[in-house]
Design a protein that fits this description.
The protein is α/β, with parallel strands linked by helices. 41% of the residues lie in helices and 16% in strands. The chain has a single domain, classed as NAD(P)-binding Rossmann-like Domain (Rossmann fold, 3-Layer(aba) Sandwich).
């Protein structure tokens, strides 16, 4: 992965909120492997998994702080003394937000605001990066998706992620506090769980292939996504934290690959990799789902020197190997 390594991370301290979760734990792993001076994880373990960070618990440069971003005092404590924040803690899933908009709002908006306030008041912080979402594009039919050309949100989850961006912009203008939102497009890879009611499509497809059971596809399968392997997202977070000293203001940046894959194509690929032949079961399309999502990553290239190194097919192969090793 062509991103800042040991020499550039030496002496630097990081806070990863949601660091026991899927994306957060991959960022933590990279930072620790590359010799960061301090990597502090702040997580309430509501959706994160302690197993994801267990290998790091005894390392001298690792700290785990169990707490909730909905509590401002806990956020202030978590931020103390760190130079860089990668704010990954959130409640994901469009269906979850439709079923429970109040809790999604509390975690994603109040929690995000608490982190912004804590970061703004910090005397040690150099840069805060946070997880934004492609859901902010809403019902926009423009393709590829370009920052600044958003539509109306299609779910409570999308509303919360859009509000995150609005707060980031306001904090930049009112408090001169500058941060960067990374708009993720359908991230997948190791440490992503298939064992919950709101699991994403790729881990569910992996589970189906390994267990030899037909997967469920909501809709006709023609809906497409810009599937983004988690290693690319790690690259984006590190570069956005480390390589942006001269970048002022609030920026929202698409993080994707710039390639489109339909759900039917995705399942065909996984069948080929896993050597299975199973016809999917089709169900009614879910409320709040967008039909097509493809990103322009021109701004990411220009602003943070982001170049995705793992394409979707290679990422799917690596992810299948990880799931197979975990579920032999």
């Amino acid at each position: 992965m062509e991103i800042p390594q040991t020499s550039l991370l030496k002496g630097k301290s990081f806070l990863i909120t949601g660091g026991a979760g899927f994306i957060g734990s991959n960022i933590v792993k990279y930072l620790l492997e590359q010799g960061a001076e301090l990597v502090r994880v702040f997580d309430n373990l509501s959706t994160g998994c302690i197993e994801n960070i267990e290998p790091f618990r005894d390392l001298p440069n690792f700290e785990f702080l169990q707490g909730d971003i909905r509590d401002l005092n806990s956020c202030i404590k978590a931020v103390e003394g760190v130079q860089y924040i990668s704010h990954q803690a959130a409640l994901g899933s469009v269906p979850r937000s439709i079923k429970d908009p109040i809790n999604t709002n509390a975690v994603n908006i109040i929690g995000h605001l608490n982190m912004l306030i804590s970061a703004k008041e910090s005397h040690s912080l150099k840069r805060m990066v946070y997880a934004a979402s492609s859901s902010s594009f809403g019902d926009s039919t423009i393709s590829p998706k370009v920052e600044g050309q958003e539509g109306s949100p299609l779910s409570p989850y999308a509303v919360t992620k859009k509000v995150n961006e609005m707060y980031g912009d306001v904090f930049s203008k009112v408090y001169d506090f500058n941060c960067i939102g990374l708009r993720y497009f359908n991230v997948f890879g190791p440490n992503q769980s298939a064992e919950n009611d709101y699991a994403a499509v790729i881990p569910l497809f992996m589970k189906a292939a390994i267990s030899k059971t037909p997967p469920t596809i909501f809709g006709d399968g023609s809906q497409s996504r810009d599937f983004t392997f988690v290693e690319n997202v790690v690259q984006a977070n590190i570069k956005a934290m480390i390589n942006t000293e001269n970048l002022t203001g609030h920026h929202v940046i698409n993080i994707a690959v710039g390639e489109q894959t339909s759900l039917n194509e995705l399942w065909l690929l996984i069948q080929k990799i896993s050597n299975t032949k199973l016809s999917p079961a089709y169900a009614n399309r879910r409320a709040g789902d967008v039909m097509h999502s493809l990103a322009s990553i021109a701004n990411a290239k220009e602003l943070i020197n982001y170049y995705p190194e793992v394409r979707a097919e290679e990422g799917i192969k690596r992810t299948y190997d990880w799931f197979l090793a975990k579920n032999p």
